[in-house]
Amino acid sequence: MEITTFERLTGSERCLVEEAEKVREHAYNPYSRFYVGAALLAQTKEIITGANVENASYGLSICAERAALLRANAMRIRKLEKVAISTRGETFDVKEPTMPCGACRQWIYEFAQLSEKDLEIISASTNRSKILRATISELLLSAFGPKDLGIDITKYQR
Ligand code: THU
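Above: the input record for the complex with tetrahydrodeoxyuridine. Below: its predicted structure, written as tokens.
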């Protein structure tokens, strides 16, 4: 895990963070009032975004990261390079960039197996003053995946 700044990101990484910030504002979050946006950079260089969508049955809420992955799949895109995340509270700025929850790490790991390389995660504090960078294999050590089931997923790569 690396702590960095917005200025030190590459141009395309900055764009990805900007897209995460934009989509963050589409969060459907009546229960937590927490806004999360995720932007995926596909190997095709397309950007696919998602925001968190909550439900009155709280546990059924979908995180921004998984919302974005579902959209990518519906667009026939499964090979990814990076994920940018931006969060804010209703009445406060998030100072410490948030990393994906456990369920989302497992989902990102699945897509990393379909991609050419380890997936990079870049998370920004609300005002971009702090950026964290990590790879999914760093965030999910000894992950359970398709190989454990003896399944070759190469034919599912898109
Ligand atoms: N949330 C995300 O969208 N991504 C995460 O990685 C952590 C949590 C959402 C779920 C819920 O809508 C709100 O943030 C508060 O947990």
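Notes for the reader.
The mean pLDDT is 98.
Helices lie at 11-24, 64-74, 102-114, 136-139.
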